[in-house]
Amino acid sequence: MGAMTDPSPWWSRAVFYQVYPRSFRDSNGDGVGDLDGVTAGLDYLADLGVDALWLNPVTVSPMADHGYDVSDPRDIDPLFGGIEALDRLVAAAHERGIRITMDLVPNHTSSAHPWFAAALAAGPGSAQRARYLFRDGTGPGGVNPPNNWISIFGGPAWTRVVERDGAPGQWYLHLFDPEQPDLNWDNPEVFEDLEKTLRFWLDRGVDGFRIDVAHGMAKPPDLPDMQLAENKLLADMDSDPRFNHEGVHDIHRNIRAVLNDYPDAVAVGEVWVYDNAAFAAYLRPDELHLGFNFRLVRAEFGADEIRDAIENSLAAVALQDATPTWTLSNHDVEREVTRYGGGPLGLARARAMALVMLALPGVVFVYNGEELGLPNVDLPDEVLQDPVWERSDRTERGRDGCRVPLPWSGDAPPFGFSTTADTWLPMPADWASSTVERQLADPESTLHFFRRALRLRRDRSGVVGAELTGLSSEDGVLTVQTEGGLRCVLNAGAHPVDLPAGEVLLTSAPLQEHSPSLRSPRPGRLPPNAAAWVL
Ligand code: GLC
């Protein structure tokens, strides 16, 4: 369709590996991962078989939301090694044929951004305040916030400032933490500055962006009240006035116009929009290249639920002839091993779901540690850092449990992640059995399983990850069939099932033997909570 769609841009069936830089690898012994740590891990990632990295934010930030509060979007925070460390990473990754994409945070800045300091100093009605969403309060003396919006992290989405004369003054909007004031996207200066940021990183050799809250930015002019039941990152927000305002599409068109000057660059948006047509609108040929699709993240482990998620994801992108994307986890959600029941059951299901995901056409995102089968970590209260914890009055534990540093080697924390045991989040002692070192030594490990699956996806691209020709679920069994004749069978039921005849390329768990009396020419039986690729 669309004249702008190159038949095969590099990202069209790429496997992206999401690096949470604080947690991947620490090169300088301060207990926090950094970019030279990522560079040191590139051979590991090349062996895993990934095509590109998505780095969570590494730009300058006071780290109130671990980098999603940006105070200088055109420099790298010293915590992550400064801008030279990014240059080293880009060069070393490109040598290995791995692309680098960065997180871009256009919805808000940090309250430490010079613009926000200037806005506070300049006072009501000033051009400086017009870069953000300052409003007078309601009620006597403006004591109440301008509307009833709630922050995604809990509590009101408005904070009242103290004016220069010391009196309580205007309120400013922050859909997230108070240290993340929302920008006013009706102000042309805001896009002018974003364009500088886009060109700054693209000119430095970065291959694209993951756009944070890509369904945010634009706000309805009258800022109408919201339905308070809708305040959840994972909730169905389609009627929520805080997000998905139609003005957002002009912003994406403007971003795309810049990216088109860099023909290989890609933008993938974080779009928490569920209606298929509304989601697809972000993927029009002059908007985002890709949109994150969270349906697999939200689906229960059940054949019908997963079929439904896949069907809807494909139906949505088909509306714009766009490329599907798939992900099972990221830095905002509970890790899938835990979501699917935890322990050996959760791990078995996570491996099975990895085979389903990697059989599908389009782009796949793997979150660091997924390839090691890591579970979420139950962290003690006193180490929690996610702003969600305090802002929910300690009722929501937040996202730290999926952000614990990766175990590389050795028998005790910090497992080669760092040289200090005082890592920014503590690592569980029982991860000794999950280290990269231990898994490399075990041919049955989850790491080897991912390496095999990614290699097959790359080497057998005509069948693994090819267009779908069939998708069905029956009696707890999901079957995905691709153009080249691959059948991916997922057994989400309670009993072993027969596999179709053919060559078994890979299974997520050992098959069960047929009883010898049957002398079946078929492969063995697929146990529950397992998947297989049969050609
Ligand atoms: C996105 C990010 C999340 C962050 C929020 C605010 O949802 O994925 O981690 O806290 O935006 O920037």
Description:
This protein has 15 helices and 20 strands. It has 535 residues and is of the alpha/beta class. It folds into 3 domains: 10-109 and 188-453, TIM Barrel (Alpha-Beta Barrel); 114-173, Oligo-1,6-glucosidase, Domain 2 (Oligo-1,6-glucosidase, domain 2), CATH 3.90.400.10; 467-534, Immunoglobulin-like (Sandwich). The strands form 5 sheets. It has an 8-stranded parallel β-sheet. It has a 5-stranded antiparallel β-sheet with strand order 14-15-16-20-18, with helices on one face. It is globular. The structure holds alpha-D-glucopyranose. Alpha-D-glucopyranose binds next to loops.
Comma- or semicolon-separated keywords:
535 residues; alpha/beta; TIM Barrel; Oligo-1,6-glucosidase, domain 2; Immunoglobulin-like; 3 domains; 8-stranded parallel β-sheet; 5-stranded antiparallel β-sheet; 15 helices; 26% helix; binds alpha-D-glucopyranose
Describe this structure in a few short sentences.
This protein has 535 residues and is of the alpha/beta class.
Strand content: 15-25%
Number of helices: 15
Termini separation: 31 Å
Q: Number of DSSP strands?
A: 20
CATH superfamily of the largest domain: Glycosidases
- CATH topology label of the largest domain: TIM Barrel
Q: Report the biggest beta sheet as strand number plus sense, adding barrel if it closes.
A: 8 strands, parallel
Please mark out the parts with pLDDT under 50 across 5 or more consecutive residues, or reply none: none
Mean pLDDT: 95
Oligomer designation: single chain
Structural class: alpha/beta
Rough outline: globular
- Helix coverage percent: 25-40%
What is the gyration radius calculated from CA atoms? 24 Å
